[in-house]
Every structure is written in structure tokens, then in C-alpha cells.
Amino acid sequence: MKRIISILLPLCVFCGVNAFAQSAKSERIKPRWIQKLPKPTNTTFNYELDFSVGSSLDEARQKSLSGLIASSGFENGVVVVSNYDSKIVDSQIVENGKIKDVQREEMEINSQIKGNEVSLHIKNVAEYWERDKSGTYHLTKLYAKSTSAQTPNFDNVTPTTKYGARGLWRSMIIPGWGQFHKGSYLKGGLILGGTAVCAAGIVVAEGKRADYHKRMLQTYDVNMIRAYQTKRDNFTTTRNICIGATAALYLYNLIDAIAAPGAQRLVVKRSDAKGNTYTVVPSVSDNGAPVMMAAINF
User: What is the DSSP string of 46-80?
Assistant: First the structure.
């Protein structure tokens, strides 16, 4: 028996179309959740990654959700064929006291299904995309998907690039470790390598300084004393420069570890039995609609 079901989202995708048009990827650093999925705090849902490719970001998103719905249908013994109707809506928001133009994609999905009636609840958690030289979009999306017909108790998940003390204490112990932890491997390598070079410079310069100072005390030749004194003073200056460079690099390392953004990570907050989350920040769009929330009945 065939059922045609209108999947009312609202599915609001915030995409700075103009801002991303010239960019090769949505995030400077590939998100951490691609390599390691968050753990759900209850058994009513699972986190699931989906990969899709499209000639446009809109097409890649459509294919992603279509593939997720279809695979979920097969899991439950039904066949699903979906089509889409999307539009871009212009609006304005106030940010830091300034009016900012934004674009929002609204999408409605119609599905034809055949088989037993089941329920599927999907919540978009995060996404990451890259655009290659040919203009093709490679999209990775993270969904929260219900595990049964009952309404799931989704976690409140907030993507963030801030790490706070997580990066700071690491960089306090080993310069560059905090940057490695945040996914900034090149910066972390430069900081660690630069610190090692400066430290080696201090050791070498101090050794040479002490050696020429010792030689200066062991001779009575005025010319030799002057020559040794000059070389001693030069290595003293070199040592002090290396000490200053090490201190400056270490200070920069600490500031960067706590202030600079890293790879996007997910902050997961548990929901209570009624589905309420322990947070004062609601996960809604600027028009009051849940962001990327889909309730789908088969």
C-alpha cells in the first residue's frame, strides 16, 4: 500500500551563501566529530554520519537526507522514494548592534513509501563541506536518529570551536600540545619546533659563553683576553636573545591555546525525561522554529 506523506520540517538550514561562495570548505579545520562520534546519553537515538556529493550545496544536502531516509526505510522493511521543494528566504538579524542580512534555506520533503508504517525522527546536529576545483561539493552531515517508533529524547548538542582550559593546560606543560589537541597541527608543530630550536640555542650559547669566559681567566695575554671577552659577550647576547624568543613564543603559545579557535567539536547536554534540556539557550532559529528537525512517519 502506497502512502504519500508530507514531511513538515520546518527544516531551516542557515547557510551564508554569499560568505561561503568563495571558500573551499565550511570550516578552517576538519571537525573532530567526523573522526569520533559523540555518545548519546540515552538509548532512544543514535548519532549517524552521512556522506554525499552534489553539484551544489543544496543538492548535496538533499541527497544526504534522502539517503538517510531510504536507508532507515530498508532497515524497517519499507521502500522510500523522496522528492524535494526548497527555497531561499532572505531575512535580517541584529548582531552586535548591527543589522545583518542572512539567507535561510527552507525545504519540504514529500516521500512515497511502500510497506509497514513506521516512525522515524531525525535531528540535524552538524555539517561540514568541502568544494573541489570542479565546483563539486563533498558534504558530511551528522544526524541524531531515533532507534524506535517512540519519540526520542534527543540531546541538546552545540557545535563550538572553543576549547578554553582544555588547550591551555596542555600548552603550559608542552608548548604546542594545546594546538595539537585543537587540531591545529601545523601551528602546533611550528610552536613546538620553534621552542626546541630556541632552547637548543640557549644551551649552545651558554656553553660557548662559559667556555670563552674560562679561557679568558686562564691567560695573561691582553690580546687574547680581549678576543675571548668579545666572543664571550657575543654568545651572552645570543643566549639572551634565545631566552627572550623562548619566553615570547611560550607566551604566544598560551594565548593562542586559550583564545584561538580549533577544530569544531560538539558540546552535548543531557535532556530530562520530558525532553527538556538543562540549558538556558534554546536550539531554535531566528523565527522560532527548530533548526533542522525532521519528524518523518512512514
Answer: EEEEEEEEESSHHHHHHHHHHHHHHHHHHHTT-EE
**Euclidean distance between CA atoms 288 and 101, whole angstroms:** 18
The set of cell numbers assigned to 167 is 588547550
Roughly what angle, to the nearest 10 degrees, separates helices 222-259 and 165-173?
Answer: 160
Separation of alpha carbons 176 and 260, rounded Å: 13
The set of cell numbers assigned to 288 is: 522560532
The cell numbers describing 22, all together, are: 568563495
Residue 70 in grid coordinates: 531510504
SS3 1: coil
Residue of 283, 265, 267, 285 whose CA lies nearest to 275 = 283
At residue 230, what are phi and psi to the nearest 5 degrees? Answer: -65, -45
Angle formed at CA 158 by CA 45 and CA 183, multiple of 5 degrees: 105
* Long-range contact pairs involving 205-209 (C-beta distance under 8 Å, separation at least 24): 205/235, 205/236, 205/238, 205/239, 205/242, 206/235, 206/239, 208/235, 209/235, 209/236, 209/239
Residue 89: its pLDDT value, please? 58
* Geometric angle at alpha carbon 109, from 104 and 114, rounded to 5°: 165
Q: In this predicted model, what pLDDT tens digit does every residue of 20-75 receive, in sequence order?
A: 444 588 998 999 999 889 899 888 899 999 999 998 998 898 888 888 877 765 55
Instruction: Please tell me the distance from the alpha carbon of residue 13 to that of residue 25, in angstroms, as a whole number.
Output: 17
Q: Dig out the grid coordinates for 172 from the structure.
A: 603550559
